[in-house]
Amino acid sequence: MTTAANPPHATRSAIGALILTGVIATAAASVATVAVAAAGHAAGISLGVGDDTIPLSGFGLLTAAFSLVGVLLAVLLARFARRPRRTFVLVTVVLTALSLVPDLLIDAGAATKALLILTHLVAAAIVVPALARRLAA
Predict the structure, then answer these.
(1) What would the pLDDT profile of 18-37 be if each residue is shown by its tens digit?
(2) According to DSSP H, which parts of the chain are helical?
(3) CA-CA distance, 44 to 22, in Å (whole number)?
(4) Residue 85 in contact with residue 37, Cβ under 8 Å?
(5) Between helices 12-42 and 110-134, what is the axis angle to 10°?
(6) What angle in degrees, to the nearest 10, is found between the helix axes of 56-80 and 12-42?
(7) What are residue 52's DSSP bridge partners?
(8) 50's torsion region: left (phi>0), alpha (psi -120 to 50) or beta?
(9) DSSP states of 92-123 as a string?
C-alpha cells in the first residue's frame, strides 16, 4: 500500500476557481479605485504627489498589479499552508496596513493622502474577502 507523502491541500479545480475569482475581484477593485480617485478629483482633491500628478489609469494599473500578487499569494497558501484562509487574511491585513505607510509619508495634502488611503482600503475590501472565501478554513 502506498500513499502520497504530501497530498495537495487544494485540488486543481479549486485552484482554478480561486484564480478566476481573483481575476474578477482584481478587475472590480481596479475599476473601483479608478472610480474613487475620479470622484475625489472631481470633488476638488488633488492627485498631485510632489511635482507629479497620479494619472487615473495609474490607480487601476497598480491596483491590478498588486491584486494579482494577492491572487498568487492565495494560490500558494491554498497549496502549501495548513490554514490557508487564516494565513491569507492575516498576511493581507498586515500588507494592507503597510501599504498605507507611504501614503502617510508622501509630499501631498491631507485630502490627497486620505484619498490614496481610501483607494487602498477599497481595493483590499474587494479582493481580500473574495479570495478568502475561496480558501479552506
Answers:
(1) 999 999 999 999 999 999 99
(2) 12-42, 56-80, 84-105, 110-134
(3) 33
(4) no
(5) 160
(6) 160
(7) 49
(8) left
(9) HHHHHHHHHHHHHHSSS-HHHHHHHHHHHHHH
